[in-house]
Design a protein that fits this description.
The complex is a heterodimer of chains A (about 375) and B (about 270). Chain A is an all-alpha fold and about 375 residues long. Helices cover about 75% and strands about 0% of the residues of chain A. The relative contact order of chain A is 0.15. With about 270 residues, chain B is of the alpha/beta class. In chain B, β1 and β2 form a beta hairpin. In chain B, α3 runs parallel beside α5. The two termini of chain B are about 35 Å apart. Classes of the chains: A mainly alpha (about 375), B alpha/beta (about 270).
């Protein structure tokens, strides 16, 4: 059998590799930009846990967290402040990070897979399936006798299962004789989305006023239900997708050339498609289950990163995770504070802030 | 040797390739010519592994393609056109050709630089791909294909394994100067040991740059061999249905095919060579 030899080409060690300066400059820029994203996220998280009906200074935030770890950081705070921070604010901010990162990375992966910067995980049916699941649980849950504390759990579980089930159907329809057609997946996704939309419509017909209100709020998204429990469910699923995604970077880069071209480059496109769809479906289904439908993050975050760092997935995927998390942390901060004590659904915030921003990007891009 | 062995490809009722046998060996340039719909691109797609034949075999050094290790390091494909909508730089696009290699960044950059010099696109390295003209894009993709097969792959007996470059109408988007530049690059790559198979429309480009020409019509091989043996008025009439004169090229050692205008008596002009 053949043996693989990877020999260095042009073995002159003293010669600087061509384009080395250009490549080094690009790598430095990537590090600086990713670092800046990280700092912005950290600042946003501290601001978000500090601001609210019970106020804390950033020093107090650090103090309470340090006290939990057994370190006396010096900044005194009341028991009430500590309780609000640990039981309410912290899980909520961490859930924003998890949901934002999951939606943004899934968006970036889907855009790579579909070779279209406008693609989002909704194309393969995960959002509409989750909506149908949630609507089913909200409208039929009472009939089945589920009420009280169990009701939100049922809605989340149904949304999660619905999202995964529709994605599975779309993926199976698009896979024939071991080969998955991305175009067929797109078309199947449109059909499944229509079907799920009709299903939600039927459920709406049977819903009473309270259920309609619940359903509306669910479709507009909210992180108000954030608990350590919700975080413990969503974080491992989203975290696995976010951490595994860089592994797909090289394949997704090659896929941007086209499916045939990626295969010529030795990429096993069917396997990559299966992994990419699975990862983003799990992440989006988990994020949607705990936070409802939240639009635009999966579209805006990767777009912003591409503008700054180019389309290469090695920088795009971690960059999208950071930017998506940051966007959602600030969106949730706005959702909690602009109409306080009332809370604006976060989907409204992301749409109101995201849509004009996106339009501005498009107009700016046209001018270049 | 990368070869089709009695390959038949069908699409519905139509037979695109009819028991076609054709191969390319390391070191040679093979041009595939023929009228539209003759099956040229289909033949290339079968060699590229994109199309699975209804019957017959595709082999690399006698082995079925599926059994060849390191296939992506040994065979690169330049498609007719690539729809790349994302803003990679030209250098990034060429570096995508290094995907099958697990080489160091430095080796990848070196291979990319060499490929870009060969394809004459070094000066485009920092340009964004969407801002390039059609001809520039085609040459950047040529550089990507060259970078893909740049590097030694050992075969079982210690001899470097043959590398192959498949070009699907590489000159169709290019002006006259760049058509010749691309085929000169192909010649140079062949002289360095790679086997090049190119689908071409222009018989004179094929005559000037190919070691062998394969003429296809209706999915079958009409003729294959050295340019002056294959490019005869009879073969061209049989494949393309037009009348041509074949003379000697005024300065290169190859035939020159000139279509004869309608109504002109075939014997009225002197046939050279």
């Amino acid at each position: 059998m053949t043996e693989t030899l990877t020999l260095p080409v042009l073995a002159d060690d003293t010669a600087e590799a061509p384009f080395a300066a250009e490549a080094a400059r690009q790598a430095r820029r990537t590090r600086v930009v990713l670092g800046a994203f990280g700092v912005t996220l950290a600042a946003g998280m501290v601001a978000s846990v500090a601001v609210g009906a019970v106020g804390l200074s950033p020093a107090q935030v650090v103090g309470v967290l340090a006290a939990r770890l057994g370190i006396d950081a010096g900044a005194a705070s009341t028991d009430q402040q500590a309780a609000v921070l640990l039981a309410i604010r912290l899980p909520r901010v961490l859930l924003s990070v998890v949901v934002g990162a999951g939606l943004a990375v899934s968006g970036a992966v889907m855009q790579g897979l579909f070779r279209n910067p406008l693609a989002d995980p909704g194309l393969v049916g995960v959002s509409s399936g989750a909506a149908l699941g949630a609507a089913g649980a909200i409208v039929l849950g009472a009939t089945l006798g589920v009420a009280g504390a169990l009701a939100p759990v049922l809605v989340a579980a149904a949304a999660f299962c619905g999202g995964l089930a529709t994605t599975f159907v779309v993926y199976r329809v698009a896979t024939a004789r071991g080969r998955t057609s991305v175009t067929t997946m797109l078309l199947a996704g449109i059909a499944i989305n229509a079907l799920c939309g009709a299903g939600v419509g039927v459920l709406v017909l049977f819903a009473d006023d309270g259920q309609l209100r619940d359903l509306t709020f669910w479709t507009l998204g909210s992180l108000g239900g954030a608990t350590w429990g919700a975080l413990a469910i969503a974080a491992p699923l989203v975290g696995a997708a976010v951490l595994a995604s860089p592994w797909l970077a090289r394949a997704l880069d090659a896929l941007l050339l086209g499916e045939a071209e990626a295969r010529h480059l030795g990429i096993r496109t069917d396997r990559v498609t299966a992994i990419a769809v699975t990862l983003s479906a799990l992440a989006v289904a988990a994020a949607t289950a705990v936070a409802g439908l939240i639009g635009f993050v999966g579209l805006v975050a990767p777009h912003l990163v591409r503008l700054l760092l180019g389309p290469g997935h090695r920088a795009l995927l971690p960059g999208s995770a950071l930017v998506g998390a940051t966007l959602l942390v600030f969106a949730d901060l706005a959702a909690r504070t602009v109409l306080a004590p009332a809370e604006v659904p976060i989907g409204i915030v992301t749409a109101v802030a995201g849509a004009p921003f996106f339009l501005a990007l498009l107009l700016h891009g046209r001018a270049d | 040797m990368l070869s089709l062995d009695s390959v038949t490809v069908r699409a519905g009722q139509a037979t695109l390739l009819d028991a076609l046998s054709l191969g390319v060996a390391p070191g040679e340039v093979v041009a595939v010519v023929g009228p539209n719909g003759a099956g040229k691109t289909t033949a290339l797609r079968v060699l590229a592994g994109e199309t699975t034949p209804a019957s017959g075999n595709v082999r690399l050094d006698g082995r079925p393609l599926a059994d060849v290790a390191d296939l992506a390091r040994r065979r690169a494909v330049l498609p007719q056109e690539s729809g790349l909508a994302f803003g990679f730089t030209a250098l990034d696009v060429v570096l995508l050709g290094r995907t099958p290699w697990r080489a160091s960044r430095r080796d990848d950059l070196t291979a990319a630089a060499r490929a870009m010099a060969q394809a004459g696109v070094e000066h485009l390295a920092g340009r964004r791909y969407p801002t390039l003209s059609g001809g520039e894009r085609q040459r950047v993709h040529l550089a990507r294909a060259l970078a893909q097969i740049d590097g030694p792959v050992a075969s079982g007996d210690g001899v470097p394994a043959g590398r192959y470059l498949l070009l699907d109408e590489p000159t169709s988007a290019l002006d006259l100067g760049h058509q010749h530049a691309v085929l000169q690059t192909a010649r140079r790559v062949a002289s360095e040991g790679a086997g090049v198979l190119a689908v071409l429309h222009d018989l004179n480009l094929a005559a000037q740059y190919a070691d062998r020409i394969a003429v296809l019509a209706a999915g079958r091989l009409v003729a294959v061999g050295k340019p002056d043996a294959v490019l005869t008025p009879t073969v061209v009439r049989c494949a393309f249905g037009i009348t041509v004169m074949v003379t000697a090229h005024p300065c290169a050692a190859c035939p020159l095919v000139v279509p004869v205008p309608d109504g002109l008596a075939f014997g009225a002009l002197p046939v050279l060579g």
